[in-house]
Amino acid sequence: MLSICSAYLASNCLLENAIAPTNLAKSPNVSVEQYFCQGKRDYFNYKLSSALTNFYQALRLNPNYANIYLYRGNSYVLLGNLPNAFANFNFLLRLKPDFPNAHLVYANRGSAFARSGNYRAAIADYTQSIKLNGSTPLVRENRGFAYYFLGQEQAAIADFQAEARLFRFKFAQMMELIYAVQHKDESRLKTNWPLVAPNRGQEMKGC
């Protein structure tokens, strides 16, 4: 395990921007799990500043709590703070190489790369995510967009087709994207590089 000092420095745990503490953050007797649960609750309700406050407080108590770095990375991507997002994702992969949800880390770091315009790095991360867990929606779709923006239209179509086969509820959407690629309809080929969120029902059990 990494030292507390190493964890704080490597993950930007000491936030540069002040975030107003929640009532929970002011309590002197709150456990790591309570901070994390409140942070997840805030995250799923898109109260990202409050979520980051609680994740920060949890990591002060246990800087080696790996799952928190996934949530912090996701939060920073959604807030547009890509350097801090990369710091959290990268640190998590070093801290726990066998992290059970590593496919989510790679998928969402891929989206961070895509949002920064680094489509080749995004494709590499999406591909690693698929290798680790091939049954996650969005990853092939996002990789398809990354291929498209690199000018690799056939690879993009292949990914959209694969997404349609694996996730029938997305069939119509993927067919529209394939049609748009084939007919060079750029007005339909837009994405905000969505993240693959952890399963809310599972994550909130016990909170």
From TrEMBL:
Domain of life according to the entry: Bacteria
Coiled coil: none
Keyword RNA-binding: no
Keyword annotations of the record: Repeat, TPR repeat
Pfam families: TPR_11
SUPFAM superfamilies documented for this protein: TPR-like (SSF48452)
TPR repeats: 66-99, 103-136
Classification via Gene3D superfamilies: Tetratricopeptide repeat domain (1.25.40.10)
Name the UniProt record assigns to this protein: Tetratricopeptide repeat protein
